[in-house]
Amino acid sequence: MIEGFITDYSIFIPEFDALLDMNDIEEINRLIENKHKYEQEVEKNVEDKKIDLFIWQGILVRKISQAKNMVMNTIMHETYNKFYQRIKACRNLKELQALEKEIFSVYSDFVIYYSEVTDNYTLNRILKHIHINIESYISLQTISEELNLSRPYISLVFKEHMGVTVMDYITNLKINRAKTLLATTTQSIMEVSELLGFHDSSHFCKAFKKVTGGTPREYRNR
């Protein structure tokens, strides 16, 4: 612990800042887990924890905003506002700690997304639509209708620049988000499936196993 700071001490640790720059989400999660254990031991005040998360949101937004990318910033503003309201609505430390893990995971996705932004205007429009609507049902048809582009053209542009199909990219992104929710919330597998826009829990489990090699239940139990 760093003495003298009432707020989250990890905010002031250079190591944490470096991990954010490297987007090392695995090591960040390890540090967060240790921090959460300490917070539980000292019974950290809920209002103080909310303030910590407001501060972390500001830090993460600032880091991503330094990229000065308008496509990124549009998505980020919507996510920031959503998390801001969710932080305010949390009722206990457990809910806030679960939300903290989700916040770091989602902002990590932003860093990955920024690395994918190219000088191809059409591809950026497709990526923006996918990331904004990742917690909804997405298909080639819905992208086509929303962006007024033909499905064959979307598939061609995406595969040419990203090296994978649109639907494989969407599935991988959804499963990564599902892993965060399974690890950090008490939502049921069916609830996670519905949240991420899968047809049903069977479809979700099949997609999850294809990407990770195991079922959602096995992942949660680990």
UniProtKB/TrEMBL annotation:
The name this protein goes by in its record: Helix-turn-helix transcriptional regulator
Residue ranges occupied by any HTH araC/xylS-type domain in the UniProt entry? 124-222
Report which residue ranges the record marks as coiled coil: none
Show the taxonomic lineage: Bacteria, Bacillati, Bacillota, Clostridia, Eubacteriales
**Keyword line:** DNA-binding, Transcription, Transcription regulation
The UniProt entry, under InterPro entries, shows:
Homeodomain-like_sf, HTH_AraC, HTH_AraC-typ_CS, Tscrpt_reg_AraC-type_HTH
